[in-house]
Fold this sequence. Notes:
Elements: E1 2-8, H1 11-33, H2 39-67, E2 76-80, E3 85-90
Antiparallel strand pairs: 1-3, 2-3
Helix pairs in contact: 1-2
Amino acid sequence: MAKKKVGQVTPVERDEIQRLFERRNGLNELAKILTADNAELYERLVTDMGETGTKFQQWWDTMAQKYSWESIPDGNWEINFDTCEIFLVTPEV
Length: 93
């Protein structure tokens, strides 16, 4: 993988995506141990995972448009939570 710095976000913007990132990871961990036996809880988890995933993607789309980040078809962006820097990560060929 190759990484190239393509931008920066504010600490407030970083905090938004960090909350969503941590929530998404927590929900994914919960999904590994939760079975469909508890239908109500399972449905709430599935709904929450969908909503969180949508908000997560919307944040990236909004920031990419706001800051005009470079992108490529096989690449994705990642954030350094400590520095608020945005990197374009691409597979090495």
